[in-house]
Specification:
Among the domains are: 209 residues, FAD/NAD(P)-binding domain (3-Layer(bba) Sandwich), CATH 3.50.50; 89 residues, Alpha-Beta Plaits. The radius of gyration is 23 Å and the shape is globular. Helix 1 packs parallel to helix 9, helix 9 runs antiparallel to helix 10 and helix 11 crosses helix 12. The longest helix has 36 residues. By secondary structure, the chain is an alpha+beta fold. Bound molecules: flavin-adenine dinucleotide. Flavin-adenine dinucleotide binds next to helix 1 and helix 9.
Length: 456
């Protein structure tokens, strides 16, 4: 347990960015530093509301069960607070309407809890809790424009702000998100540019928010599937009884951003639950359609760099930003912030913390990255060459059969949900029992989980 009266490290830790990664980082740093300053470029509203720095917050933000439990361990009582604010907590198998490429999944206990809230509510709850930490201060409207270095440019000693002010730091955490300028700041200091991997499914989101009566589900997922089913939707019933409805299209099949076009696109998805919801829904005044197109998977391979500055760590989207369809970003960010806390509790000095977090951040990223790009490479190849490469075809064949079982076999559905929520390893999808079903049972089912002999 950290000794909160006597922090281990003197001086100030600086965090760039007050998103989910930055807020959770500030929380763990507060246990170990004399002072923590969170520096945010945009304005932070005093209420749960939209803000400029995170345009993605307008869209459905599902928190995976793994991320929810990690957040709860850092902010005890958070889940209850969100529930009290009106955010439904429910069994994902029973109270989500789920449609995959093989059809609609029958409702059945899924064994994992899902929590539906707006990203604005989550950030606001985190901001308030971080502000309660006695040693943390937050400074908004303060864009960071560069790193400050020691004489031989091996150690980061502070940050430079847009107004020219320089802030000293014992440790700097970059949590400035998908569009981080860290690679550029590193090269400006004479370090090689980090290798960057980009896999782009050509996906765009467009979201509207509605007032609508309660339904017999709290969330709706209609997932797309490479390479022949580009469209899908995510819907959540959030605090205040509002429905956030995000529609999306991959492979360049983008939803329109005018209201009428958006509604036509939504109708074309062909999901009866979505159609019924929208038939009785009223768009919230003045919200309109919000679009987001920069959804490519983006990995900065900081851990592979031969030289890395002392006293600098990066977490969250700065390390890896994912295709949002998989809903992994916030969970990965929270797990990395927690790893930062563990390193601070264990390591003897801040150089060791830097080394350990760089390794752990990369390790935490690995599986989510593979899950995300294995699907998105198909879109990318499809766009560039028309067909997936030979080496991807066995995985596609396996996935198609597995997805039929997700519809037809509740046990496979539960395994799938566990993997999706990151509480089970993806290897569970190829464990002997599931593997046997995929090889010997899946062939009996067609679309919709219907047996080829007509029974279900
Ligand atoms: C459309 C979309 C939908 C998504 N849906 C989901 C989902 O369902 N589930 C999920 O888990 N994840 C989702 N994500 C991912 C999720 O938004 C991020 O992974 C998560 O917020 C962690 O990001 P972060 O804190 O690293 O960065 P961000 O949340 O982007 O925060 C970065 C912060 O840094 C600030 N900043 C940037 N530059 C500077 C600077 N120079 N100086 C000071 N401050 C700066 C920004 O203003 C911002 O506040 C989605 C992403 C997108 C794009």
């Amino acid at each position: 347990m950290p000794d909160r009266q006597h922090p281990r490290f003197p001086g100030q830790a600086l965090v760039i960015g007050a998103g989910v990664a930055g807020l959770t980082a500030a929380r763990v740093l507060a246990d170990h530093f004399e002072r923590v300053l969170l520096v945010e470029a945009g304005a932070l509203p005093p209420v749960a509301g939209p803000r400029g720095g995170v345009p993605q917050a307008r869209h459905v933000h599902g928190m995976l069960a793994r991320g929810a439990s990690a957040l709860e361990s850092l902010f005890p009582g958070l889940q209850a607070e969100l529930v009290a604010a009106g955010a439904p907590l429910f069994d994902h198998g029973l109270l989500a309407s789920t449609t995959v490429a093989a059809g609609r999944v029958p409702r059945t206990p899924g064994g994992v809890q899902a929590h539906a809230f707006s990203r604005d509510l989550l950030e606001w709850a985190l901001r308030r809790r971080v502000a309660e930490q006695p040693r943390v201060s937050v400074r908004d409207r303060s864009p960071v424009t560069g790193l400050c270095w020691d004489a031989d440019a091996t150690r980061v000693v502070g940050l430079r702000l847009a107004d020219g002010e320089v802030l000293d730091a014992a440790l700097v955490v970059d949590a400035s998100g998908r569009f981080t300028r860290l690679p550029q700041w590193l090269t400006e200091a004479g370090l090689p540019r980090p290798e960057q991997r980009i896999v782009d499914a050509g996906l765009a989101y467009a979201t509207m928010v509605f007032d609508a009566p309660a339904r017999d589900f709290e969330a709706l997922q209609h997932v797309n599937s490479a390479p022949d089913r580009p469209r899908g939707t995510f819907v959540v019933h959030v605090e205040g009884g509002r429905w956030i409805v995000t529609v999306f299209g991959a492979g360049g099949d983008h939803p329109p951003t005018d209201e009428r076009g958006w509604l036509t696109f939504a109708a074309d998805i062909g999901n009866p639950d979505l159609d019924e919801l929208l038939a009785s829904a009223t768009p919230l005044d003045g919200v309109g359609v919000h679009a987001f197109k920069r959804t490519e998977n983006r990995l900065n391979r900081y851990a592979a760099m031969r030289r890395w500055p002392r006293r600098l760590v990066a977490i969250g989207d700065s390390v890896a930003a994912f295709d949002p369809v998989f809903g992994q970003g916030m969970t990965v960010a929270v797990l990395q912030a927690r790893a930062l806390g563990e390193a601070l509790a264990r390591a003897d000095d801040l150089d060791a913390v830097t080394r350990r977090v760089r390794r752990r951040a990369a390790a935490i990223t690995r599986t989510p990255w593979l899950m995300s790009v294995s699907e998105d490479l198909v879109w990318q190849y499809h766009r560039e060459r028309g067909t997936p490469p030979l080496w991807l075809r066995p995985a596609l064949w396996y996935k198609r059969r597995l997805v039929r079982l997700v519809v037809a076999d509740p046990e496979v559905f539960r395994t799938f949900l566990g993997v999706y929520h990151m509480v089970r390893s993806p290897t569970a999808l190829a464990a002997p029992r599931t593997l046997a079903k995929v090889l010997f049972k899946a062939g009996r089912y067609g679309p919709g989980g219907t047996r080829h002999d007509g029974t279900t």
